[in-house]
Write a structure and sequence with these properties.
By secondary structure, this protein is α/β, with parallel strands linked by helices. It has 14 helices and 13 strands. The strands form 4 sheets. Strands 3, 4, 5, 6, 10, 11 and 13 form a 7-stranded mixed sheet that branches. A two-stranded antiparallel sheet has the order 1-2. A two-stranded parallel ribbon has the order 7-12. The protein is rod-shaped.
Length: 316
């Protein structure tokens, strides 16, 4: 290996990209192993590669640098004068690479040690607990913080990078976010047992629902967005009877007999099962929606956020 045929013709010019002129880290590591062990075969075994592959790497490095690096003999391998110089230069390069790798691992560990989730109220209360319990099984050391709000507020938190992953209920996703559907949901019109609609044998027409003052979630909630869109062709929503900022408050008002409410079927299970509320069929419109996970556009979820997204999609 003491001669390099046509090295001057094959070596990259001095003005080429640095990556074309500098040997890769694996080749430098191999050269240092040869210097330490005095044998190309022993160096290959230590690094877990074949001896022909090791020889090929050394030849490629010699061609790239344009100088001989290793001389082989029956007694083993030894570095040329140029090879000894290259190993001296390689040591701080490899030390810097190890420091870089350690820093990158620390960053990954910091990222994987916490997860910030923002979710709409319905998802946060009725779906998120099960998802987070499943996540904890696979990532017991990840600290999770969950903030709940309406779908607009959730989207704003994700866009502001105050949450790693968000979950919303609205019909559209704001610009700047990517999304994936994780579940399907249905809105249910519900009334107290004493309400006239509870005794109707026929569905309530969509136009009648639109004209009736309802107990509703606030503007910006996914439930309100879906209901607005579903009834726009029927004259649009009448002025709300009550406008409340939580699902619990809406249900309590409906149970008291104040008027009809419209909420996710996920949130009405106990009230419907206990006959504290009665579901009312509606004709002429579909009150269905997709529940979505959202994250900043172009930044696919990673670490625990990726795992949580996989769990939610697997459960849908």
């Amino acid at each position: 290996m003491s001669e390099i045929p046509s090295a001057a013709a094959t070596a990259p010019g001095p003005g080429g990209p640095l990556a074309h002129r500098v040997p890769d880290l694996g080749s430098l590591e191999l050269l240092l192993a040869v210097a330490r062990l005095g044998s190309l075969g022993a160096a290959a075994r230590e690094l877990g590669i074949t001896q022909p592959a090791a020889s090929s790497r050394i030849r490629a490095m010699e061609t790239r640098l344009g100088v001989p690096l290793v001389e082989r003999s029956p007694r083993g391998s030894r570095l040329t004068e140029q090879g000894a110089l290259v190993t001296d230069w390689a040591r701080p390069v490899l030390a810097a690479a190890e420091a870089f790798d350690a820093g990158a691992q620390a960053l990954r560990g910091r990222r994987d040690s916490r997860l910030r989730v923002a979710a709409s109220l319905t998802i946060a209360e009725y779906l998120m607990p099960g998802w987070l319990i499943a996540l904890r099984t696979g990532r017991p050391d990840t600290a999770v913080s969950l903030s709940a709000g309406n779908s607009v507020a959730v989207a704003e938190r994700v866009l502001a990078h105050e949450a790693d992953l968000g979950f919303v209920e609205g019909l559209t996703v704001p610009e700047g976010l990517d999304c994936a559907v994780v579940a399907q949901d249905r809105l249910v019109v519900a009334v107290a047992p004493g309400h006239p609609w509870a005794r109707r044998s026929a569905p309530v027409p969509a136009a009648e629902l639109a004209a009736t003052p309802l107990i509703l979630r606030e503007q910006g909630s996914g439930t309100r967005q879906v209901l607005d869109a579903a009834l726009v062709a029927h004259g649009g929503l009448a002025a709300p009877l009550l406008e409340l900022a939580s699902t619990t408050a809406v249900k309590a008002a409906a149970v008291s007999g104040a008027g009809p409410c419209v909420l996710s079927e996920l949130s009405l299970g106990e009230e419907l099962a206990g006959r504290r509320l009665v579901a009312v069929e509606v004709a002429g419109t579909a009150l269905r929606r997709s529940l979505r996970a959202v994250w900043p556009a172009g930044a696919r979820p990673a670490g625990p956020a990726r795992d949580l997204l996989s769990l939610t999609r697997g459960a849908s």
